[in-house]
Write a structure and sequence with these properties.
There is one protein chain. The chain is mainly alpha-helical and about 220 residues long. The chain contains nine helices and three strands; from the N terminus they run H-H-H-H-E-H-H-H-E-H-E-H. A three-stranded antiparallel sheet has the order 1-3-2. Helix 4 packs antiparallel against helix 5, helix 5 crosses helix 9 and helix 7 runs antiparallel to helix 9. The longest helix has 20 residues. It is elongated.
Length: about 220
């Protein structure tokens, strides 16, 4: 018999066993757990086996631990780029300017925490096309928020390829290897940050809600 945490006399009682049978079952069950079924008399072993057959089998359920959004690979990938861009910006941007890419990634991370998409394979497949939305937002930063290109640019491909951090082999460039991306690193005045943040949040949230399967509401 399998080792169990306790006897199941309550279940046998529900099946119609009387108190005498239940008491015998509990005593024999306790003895078998202590000394082993083989040390019981043949008649007593048959009695326990009879009880075991009547009882439904205990299913061994695997405990599934759901990852938080902060533990998902997509989130870690975004955070990797945010860290690298922040490090680059600290020493390569004018003091009066702020990087547009920092705002893009910060707002997407905030939306992941707020909307809580599953970010399994169906969501991440759709997320690949977000590079187009990011590119449109960068163009909007130039046309509507007086962004200018920084003197020093950031190489999105190389920073992932040459990173000494423990990065996933499945991670790709956030720009989807757009040949022009490494030539452009837009920066804006601090006065325009909040307005651009709002535009970024609106466009990213619209894309995520409209395209991520886990966020689509059943009609």
């Amino acid at each position: 018999m399998k080792k169990e945490l306790s006897h199941r006399s309550d279940e046998l009682k529900a099946l119609g066993w009387n108190q005498e049978e239940l008491t015998r079952y509990e005593d024999l069950w306790d003895y078998s757990q202590r000394w082993g079924l083989i040390n019981l008399e043949r008649e007593d072993r048959q009695f326990l086996k009879k009880a075991e057959k009547l009882l439904p089998k205990i299913q061994n359920k695997k405990i599934s631990i759901k990852k938080t959004i902060e533990e998902k690979s997509y989130y870690l990938w975004l955070n990797f780029y945010l860290d690298e861009i922040t490090f680059f910006s600290n020493s390569n941007l004018p003091k009066s300017k702020h990087g547009v890419w920092t705002l893009l990634i910060e707002e997407e991370i905030k939306l992941l925490k707020e909307l809580q998409p599953v970010m399994g394979l169906p969501d991440t497949i759709k997320a690949k096309n977000l590079f187009k939305t990011r590119k449109e937002l960068i163009n909007k930063a130039f046309s509507e928020f007086d962004a200018v290109n920084n003197d020093k640019t950031f190489n999105f491909d190389e920073v992932l390829k040459n990173s000494e951090k423990d990065v996933s082999k499945n991670w790709k460039s956030i720009t989807e290897k757009d040949p022009e991306a490494n030539k452009i690193f837009p920066i804006i005045d601090f006065v325009n940050i909040e307005k651009l943040r709002s535009a970024i949040k609106d466009d990213l949230s619209s894309y995520m809600n409209d395209n991520y399967p886990s966020l689509k509401k059943d009609l």
